[in-house]
Structures are given as structure tokens and as C-alpha cells.
Amino acid sequence: MFTHLLSLLIWLPIVGAVPVLLAGSARPNLARWLALLFMVLTFVASLFLLPQYDAAQGGMQLVESHLWIASLNVHYGLAVDGISVALILLTTFVGILVVVGAWEVIQNKPHQYMAAMLALEGVMIGVFCATDALLFYVFFEAMLIPMFILIGVWGGPRRVYATLKFFIYTFLGSVFMLIALLYLYHRAGTFDLHTLAALPLTFTEQMWIFFAFLLAFAIKVPMVPVHTWLPDAHVEAPTGGSVVLAAVMLKVGTYGMLRFILPIVPDAGEHYAWLVIALSLVAVVYIGYVALVQEDMKKLVAYSSVAHMGFVTLGIFIAFLLARGLGDVDTARLGMQGAMVQMISHGFVSGAMFTCIGVMYDRLHTRQIKDYGGLINVMPWFGFFYVLFAMANCGLPGTSGFVGEFMVILASFKANPWIAFFAAFTLIIGAAYTLWLVKRVLWGEIHNPHVAEMKDINGRETFVLLAFAALTVALGIWPEPLIHLMDSSVTQVVQQLAIHKI
Amino acid sequence: MITLNDILVLLPEFYLVTVACLLLLLDAFMKPEQRHWLHWISIVVLLAAAYFVVAGQPDVTVTAFGGMFIRDQVSEILKVFALLCTVLVLVYARPYLRERKQFIGEFYTLMIFAVIGVMLLVSAGNLIMIYLGLELLTLSSYALVALNRDSSLSSEAAIKYFVLGALSSGMLLYGMSMVYGATGSLDLAQLHTVATQSAMPNLLVFGLIFMLVGIAFKLGAAPFHMWIPDVYQGASTPVTTFIASTSKLAAFGMAWRLLETGLGGLSQHWQPMLAAVAVLSMAIGNLVAIVQSNLKRMLAYSTISHMGYLLMGLVNAGPEGYSSAMFYAISYALMSTVSFGVILALARAGFECEEISDLKGLNQRSPWFAALMALALFSLAGVPPLFGFYAKYLVLQAAIDAHMLWLAIVGAVFAIIGLYYYLHVVKVMYFDKPEEGGADQPQADASLRVVLSINALALLVLGVYWGPLLGWCRHSFGLG
After folding, report:
1. 3-class SS shares of chain B: helix, strand, coil, % to 5
2. Diameter of chain B measured on Cα atoms
3. What is the widest separation between alpha-carbon atoms in chain A?
């Protein structure tokens, strides 16, 4: 029964979008309940991955492969390793919270909103499972359409600009990836990622393919200097859109690096690792400072996302320096592991931060920091959660934010102390912008009379925040299960990038 | 000497000619209120013709009338899709024509004659046959464009179309005469064998250039695209739909016959020329489309850019490339019938639904038709998982396989630019507020709604299940 588990995970939400859409605007509650039902079913189905996936053994498991286009040797190939399993669980988990979070908030055409969310979820799961490059590309691009609609229909005042920028920016990166994939197909006669990983390529070929891949994934992550779509998209997106974007969609970029850059063009990756590391450090330090001066809460968290994703790219590319430059595979594993934990942790923390901002926005309809202040006096429970997530965002030990960053800094110290020095800046800057945000929003006197009328979070909102909080704390105190789940896969990724292809 | 075999090979064409003449008679004796019968009869006739084509599909290539007519798998596929697209046009056209008092018999007979032209053109084995098929198609098209004779815009478009069309036919004929002079043959198969050892290679290449001009004109590829925007905008929407779908299949068929079946040996000459035309078409089509405010005109420029992509497949000059170009032509025909079909469905008496702003807020008034249009637009833009993406992917692959990586990169860059104007229409439909006098819930009849929905959903279904169609295209060019 589990042979088609991955297909089930992909298609259940996508097919579920149809009845939700058919429920129509006349029966919004039916649409909401149906959407929740399908999200919960998908989540439950994804839980079966844990017993089915043998973490000790590692490698690609639960393989499904059917010939899709016989004449071109294109396969409908799905499989997961530990990293994919963790990301799929994150996706299905966030999916439920997004539907619950939007329950009363989305009044305009809720059925279309929910259907778009379901379709998006299925496609994102598809990205994390695909083992055929063309299939990956199809899922990778198909994500854009529902997100485009989500931001454009339910977004803020400048939504049209933001959503067009988001779509065109991402499309720009990915078409060059398509050209690179077509070139690889031209050489190998297949899109199978496993075969492509074994394909010998000259350095010139690797270089061009590397930059095509890097452009596509760097835009998605996003890395400096192609991050400018993210603040716009986040600010204008509805809360649910922001949560999915930050929690899951950004991870697609770093996941793509793991699956494409590392195994297919390792030599170019090593040669240009300094570039990616430098850009990651710029993201950590410079974007941290940019976040500090933001006056819009969503923008602040968006910039902090860029900074935190900088840690993920840093952890991935530091592995090149360590494993290939210094031959220190164990530390490379540590850095890679840190990057993976940071990915999952950032999924929870950023999702929670955007949910918090959504809660405030629903009450006061402004995201400007200066409009708030003294919130703790009227919303004590909300304040509790907000402070918790803020602490996780600046990487306080005991929260999930700490684990990943700590591991990456530790690993980068071995590669080059200067890298660690700059990476560690985040401890100061991250704390500065987050604590200052908390200070201006939660503490102090109430100076805006509307704030005094704000009501504390209701049961629905408490549920969402509590779910995020539980995982943030659990992952901070006991990250072992997650690390164990991904351990053997991380080892394989590191081994793969150490292979010279020239 | 005409044998029974010749008649049998041409059976679908003979059948259509006979029926078209009968319909002409029938129409003359028909009362206006009975005319809806003509509509249904025409559809059945065309579907039956498609059935004859499929049922009589030969395993091997057969010729008739001494090589004048070739019946092979390529022509069969093109004919089937040309007939199907014409059926779609007829279904989408009926409510539009009735509301505008243009529901006349000539429309149907002219359509059928144009399709016969397409069928002869894609099966031509001789330069004369190509010219005859082409003229039958274009003369019927001129008349169709001029059918709305009370409209000055329509008449202007028809005259432009006619003058430029006649000019390009002249070019084509001139090129053919030079090719004949250089080789002494009009038969495509003989041309193929003697072209490489012609005693007058310069004359041959000169003729080839003129023929390329004719081909580019029929496709609507830049720099011979001038007629496309005016004709698309000026012709009544059903006729535009026909020109954008069936005619494109025919143009591909003609290009393939002339360039490969006839002058395949000269591919090193026409490859760079086609590549240049492809780049120009993608550039002009995509850039100029951005500034259009008229939806039909925008789609016209989008056609020009799509023909650039189609040519990218032909540039490959091998069976892989031809099959990808044919796949592209079919996908483009199916996508454009949807986009124009939605315009036809939304049009009502006194409202053409031609401006992009007419679609404002369509999602609030008619979510279903907004979704169908969005499917067509995303597909035209080449966003996966829709049908149009795979067509683009195949032609890009064909360019890379032909060692023209630069061409593929140019195509990719213009795909990004093209994305903008398709997204702009989606934006108008989904993100803007509806306006008074804009498109509303369509009152179109049930057959249009059902067929259009199937046509649009097919773009999604074929986006997942495109293997069989590709396999069919590849098989027809002798690939596994």
C-alpha cells in the first residue's frame, strides 16, 4: 500500500483542490472544511513516511518510476531521502496551519484561496520528491501559478507590482536552468538525476551549468543580490502566502542546490564556492543591517529571512572548502547538517513570525511598527508567543534557531576563522533587529488608542501559534530525531560533492 | 492516366469537395431560419472527413497522380488537426455570427474550401500542387476576412491581406520558377535528388531565398509579419481564429514540404536564414506585444513570436527538429483556439470583447471563463505544467541538438519577455475590479461552453499526458 505513497502525497492535495473549488463562493464553509480535511489527510499520509523511510540506511527510498514520455526517455520518477522527508513533513504541517490561519481572515472567494493553497502544497511536495530533472522543473515552475494568484488576488495595495515581479524574477532564473538541463540531456540522453550526477563534464561546461543553476536557485532562496523580489512579495502577500513562501518555498532553492549543483557540477562548485560564501556572508551581515532600519514589520522579517537563508547557503558551500579543500569530511558534514537543521527551523520560525504579524494586521490593518507599542498590556498571550518566536529568530539556545546556526558557525571556523567571524555577526545583528522590533511593538506605553481596543488571540490563532511554538521549542531542546533522520543522507551528499568529475 | 488507386488515395479530399458543392446548393434553397442545419451538417461533414483521413491512414507513404499528391503520416496528422481546429472554429463562431446577422451559408462553404486547400497543401508532392493548395486556402481566407463587408476595418484588413498575400504568392512563384530553372523539375522528390548537384547552384539558392520569403509570409514570421496584426484585428473573430489555428498548421506543412521534401539538400543554406527569421520574430513579436491594448492585436504579435519558436524547430533540419516543430504547430493551434474561443464566448451583440480592458475583473463575473482564458495564456507563455511548455521545451532542445545553443538562449530570453504580456492579461482578469460595460457572464450556447471547456482542459491534460501525441509526431518522421 505504501508503494505509491509519494504519488499520493503529491496528488491528494492537487485533486482535493477540485472539490474545494467546486464548493464555490456560495458555500464558503464547505470549502474551508474540505480544504482542512485534505490538508489533514495529506499530513497524516506524510506521517507514514517516518516508519516507511529507513533513516539508518539512507539513500533514495520509496522509489516510484514510470516511463512518462517513452520516446524521450523521460520518467515520472519519485524518491525521497532523509532531507526530502523532513521538508515534506514541514510542508504538510505548515499546510494545515495556513488553512486554519486563513479561516475567517479570507472572506473574498475563500474557495479559490484554499484551492490555490492545496494545489501549491501538492506541487511543492512534488519538487521535494522528483528524481527526474524535467519532472523537477515542471513542479518547480508550476509553483509559480498558484502563488501568483495568491499574492495578486488577496494581497495588499501594491500586490500587482509585487506578484508580477515575483513571477518574472523566478521565471527568469529558471529558464536558464532549463537550458542547462536541456544541454545535460543533450549530453546524457536522460533527465535522471542519478545518471546526470555520474556524467563527466569538462570544467567549461560545468562552469556555465553551475551559473545557470545558481541563478535559478539563488533567486529562489533568495541570495544577495537577487533578493529584491522577496521583500515586495512578502509585504504584499496575504498572511498565508507569506507563511508558505517563507516556510517552504524558499527551501526549494537550497534543496535544488543540494540536488543539482552539488552532484552534477561539483568541480565548478568548488571553484566558485568562495563566491557563494561571500554572498552568503553579505546576506548575513549586510541584510541584517538592512533589516534593522525597516519600519514595516513584514519587510523586517522578510529581510531577516534572507539573512537566515544565508546561513543555509553558507553551510552548504562551506562543505566544499572543508571536504575538498581540507579533506575534512566530518566537519563538512557538520556544516551541511547545520544548514539542513536551519532550513527546517527557519520554516517554523519564519512561518510563526509571519503568522504573528498577520494576527496584528487583522486587528489594526497596518504593518508599520510605529503604529503599535504596548501590545503586551492588551494581548498578554499573544505577547508570550511573539517573544518566544523573536527569541528563536535571534537564535537563543533552547530554541530551534540556535541549533542550525551554531553548527554552521562551528564548521566554518574550521574552514576559515574569518568566515566564522562574519557569520557570528548574526548573533549581534539578529538580536538587535529582533529585540528592537519586540521593544517597539510589545513593550512601552500604549500611544495608539486603537491598540487599546485590540483583543487577545482567539482559540484558532492560539492553535496555530501553539503548534509552531511546540515544534520550535522541541527542535531546540531535542534536535536529535531530526538530525538522525537526515544524517545518512547528509553524509551521502557530502560524499558526492567530494567526487572529482574532471 | 488516372487509376482507381489515385481516386482512393485522394478520397477524403474528393469527398470534401463534393460535399462543399452540395452545401453551396443546399444553402441556396434553404430558408434563413433553417440555416442552423447547415451549421450542424458542416460539423458532421468535417468530422467525417477527419475520420476518413484516420481510417485510411496508410502504413507507408503512398503517392497519387504521378507524385503530385503524397499521402504520408505527416500530412495525415496535419489534416486531422486542421479539420478538428476548423470544427472548433465553427462551434465557437455560431453565437457570434448569429448575433451579428452574419450567419450565412458562405461562411461555411468558404471554410470548407479553405480546409480543402490546407489538405492539398500539406500533401503536395509538386511545386504546382503547393501553389494550388496555397491559393485555394488564401483566396478563401481573403473572402472570409472580407465577409463582414459593412465594417470598414474588416474591408481594410481584407485589402491589406490580399495585396500582401498576392505579393508573397508572387515571390513564392518567382522562387519556384528559379528553382525549376536550376533543376528542371517541379517534383519535390526529384528536386531533392538533383538539388545538390545542380549545374546552377547560385540560381537555386536565389530561388530558395524567394521561397523562404513566401514561407515566412504565410507563417507570419518577421520581417514579413506586417499583415498579421491588421488582419487579426480587422477580421471578424471567428475568421481570426481560423487564421490563427488551421492556417498555421498549413503553413508549417508547406514549409516542411518545400524545405525538407524538396530542398532538404540545401539545408546548410536555409538553416542560418531561418535562424535569423526566428530570432527576429521572437524579438518583434514579444516586444511589440507588450504595448498593445487590443487583445486581438496582442495575440497577433504573440503569434509572430510563436512562429519564431516554431522555426527554431525547423532550423534543426532533422527529423527530431521537424517533429518538435510539428508538435509546436499543433500545440499553438489548440492554444489559440482557446484564447480566441473565450473572446468569442464573451462577445455579445454590440460588444466585441476586443480590448484587454474589457476583461477587467472577469474572475468576479465569470470565474470559469476567466480560468479557461488563464489556462490558455499560461500555456501560451510556456509555463509548466501546461501544454505550451512542452512545445517550447522541444524546440529549445531541437536548437541545442543542432548545436545552436545561442539560439536556444535567445529563445529563453524572449520567453521571459513574452511572459509579461500574458501575465498582464491574467492580472487584468484576476486582480482588477470589473467595470461597467466589460465582459460579463457569457450568454453563449451550450455547445460552445462544453467544447471550449474541453478544448481548454485539454491543455492541462496534454500537459501531463503529452507522450502519445509526441510519439505520433515522431513516428511520422520515422523516429522511435
Report:
1. 80, 5, 20
2. 69
3. 70
Q: Which positions 155-214 of A are in contact with B (Cβ < 8 Å)?
A: 159-160, 163-164, 167-168, 171-172, 175-176, 178-179, 182-183, 185-186
pLDDT tens-digit map of A307-362: 999 989 999 999 888 888 888 888 888 999 999 999 999 999 999 999 999 988 88
> CA A176, A179, A185, A187: dihedral to nearest 10 degrees?
-100
Domains in chain B: boundaries: 4-476
**Cβ(B231)–Cβ(B241) under 8 Å?**
no
- Closest CB to B396 among A112, A163, A179: A179
**CB B215 within 8 Å of CB B258:** yes
Entry field: residues in chain B: 480
Q: What size, in residues, is chain A?
A: 502
Q: What are phi and psi of B149, to 5 degrees?
A: -75, -15
For residue A55, give the DSSP letter: T
Q: What is the pLDDT of residues A442-473, one digit of tens each?
A: 888 888 888 888 888 888 889 999 999 999 99
Reported as half-sphere exposure (CB side, CA atoms, 13 A), residue B98 has a value of 16
Strand ranges (E), A233-329 = none
> Helix, strand, or coil here: A366?
coil
HEC profile of A282-297 = HHHHHHHHHHHCCCEH
Q: The complex's ipTM?
A: 0.90
Task: List chain B residues with CB under 8 Å of A138.
Answer: 384-385, 389
Minimum-distance CB partner of A141 among B384, B401, B479: B384
By CA distance, what is A138's nearest residue in B?
A: B384
DSSP letter (8 states) at residue B384 = T
Nearest Cα neighbor of A387 from A352, A423, A362 is A352
Do the Cβ atoms of A154 and A72 come closer than 8 Å? no
